[in-house]
Design a protein that fits this description.
Layout (H helix, E strand, L loop, with lengths): L5 E6 L4 H12 L4 E8 L3 H11 L3 E4 L2 H10 L5 E4 H9 L6 E4 L7 H9 L3 E4 L3 H17 L3 E3 L2 H10 L7 E8 L17 H4 L9 H9 L1 H14 L6 E5 L5 E7 L4 E5 L5 H9 L22 E2 L7 H11 L3 H17 L7 H12 L8 H11 L6
Helix pairs in contact: 4-5, 5-6, 6-10, 6-13, 9-13, 10-12, 13-14, 13-15
């Protein structure tokens, strides 16, 4: 009997994670079929993906770009536009798994739509759980949907916890590369340029995620994400700087045993794990060289020099709509930094001002979260 291929939707197919997901699918061609793709505005790139993978439906969030794609796409592929289009693709009836790598809070609505329709989620968008973790995880539980993390740190924790009772966890330890500036403690961060901040020492990622890594905001967001993914109290989640990025996270249990997941930095490994879960499939990678990687170092995270770490914990402790505001303010500040409108050191100042200006709503609905996000994007603090 021919093995049934798992049918995938990829939201954010033209970004870094989306492209790597396509590469994994390409290497496991007989095991997967891409039935839906979505992106923001990359017409030519998504056209090439349509030609290779022949999805039934695609969507572009930018409506003008979607109209351009519709004129060029083959008649066998339906082209949709805007957020409604992303929702429709996310909820495709035949899809078994929806990969969400849309950048920022824009991924929230499509993910909720996919879960409402009973789809398992491979999640690379940490903002979904940062802004609406309680709602999303509760809905997934009600619908019987798995949320399998793609972020290397959360994928590592997921793997370490397989077969374990989460009540036996003493600590989750999320590792961080430290970004391009952590090791240079004498560097004046106020004069950092976007080009310098985009030079990540270990990972090749999209611009927004790379800047988040440079400010360590990504770790602040990952703490909040881990809280919801694994049902772990905030005070049991720690950050440690690990410049080599070989150990992707660790779990310490109540008996003192520590489990770690490790491999060379390569996002295709956690992506394949999420796609094939609960199975594992062979992947052609070199054997890990312990003699070459014979020195693994760890350092304490500096919350004074990188205050976004502190602000993330504050937002998580307050809860309600405060993490939504943290996330929206960060997205706006990063965008302004990349355009040269604010300094690198203004990013945490913008976030702190936004949080101080916000009166959080406890136990928010999705409507409350979306409204808080929209309001924040109209504010100006510097």
């Amino acid at each position: 009997m021919e093995k049934k291929r798992k049918k995938l939707v990829i939201l954010g197919s033209t970004g870094s994670i989306g492209l790597n997901t396509c590469e994994v699918v390409r290497s496991l061609r007989g095991d997967f079929e891409i039935v839906g793709l979505a992106a923001r505005s990359s017409v030519e790139l998504i056209l090439r993906q349509i030609e290779e993978f022949h999805p039934r439906m695609v969507a572009l969030a930018d409506e003008e770009s979607a109209d351009g794609l519709k004129r060029k796409a083959p008649p066998t592929t339906e082209v949709l536009r805007g957020m409604d289009g992303l929702k429709t693709v996310a909820g495709l009836e035949e899809a078994d798994l929806v990969v969400c790598s849309v950048v920022g809070a824009a991924g929230l609505v499509p993910v909720i739509e996919a879960i409402q329709r009973g789809k398992n989620i491979a999640l690379a968008n940490k903002e979904v759980l940062v802004t609406a973790g309680e709602i999303v995880t509760r809905l997934a539980s009600e619908k019987g949907c798995d949320i399998i993390p793609i972020d290397s740190e959360h994928s590592a924790v997921h793997q370490c916890l397989r077969g374990e009772n989460v009540n036996n966890v003493r600590r989750l330890i999320l590792t961080a590369s430290g970004g391009p500036f952590f090791a240079d403690s004498d560097r004046d961060l106020s004069n950092v340029t976007p080009a310098e901040a985009l030079q990540h020492p270990r990972w090749n990622m999209g611009n927004k995620v790379t800047i988040d890594s440079a400010t360590l905001t990504n770790k602040a967001l990952e703490v909040i994400e881990a809280q919801w993914l694994f049902g772990i109290d905030l005070d049991k989640i720690e950050i440690v700087i690990h410049p080599e990025s070989i150990i992707h996270s660790l779990v310490e249990f109540v008996d003192g045993a520590i489990m770690a997941q490790m491999n060379e930095p390569d996002m295709r490994i956690p992506i394949q794990y999420a796609l094939t879960y609960p199975e594992r499939m062979p992947r052609e990678v070199p054997h890990f060289d312990f003699l070459k990687n014979n020195r693994l170092t760890f350092r304490q995270a500096d919350t004074e020099r990188f205050p976004c770490l502190r602000l993330g914990r504050q937002a998580a402790a307050i809860g309600g709509t405060m993490p939504t505001v943290l996330n929206a303010a960060n997205e706006i500040a990063v965008e302004k930094f990349l355009k040269g409108e604010v300094r690198f050191t203004d990013i945490p100042l913008w976030i702190e001002a936004a949080m101080a200006n916000h009166n959080p709503i406890p136990n928010p609905t999705i409507e409350d979260i979306l409204a808080a996000d929209a309001r924040e994007r109209k504010e100006k603090y510097l």
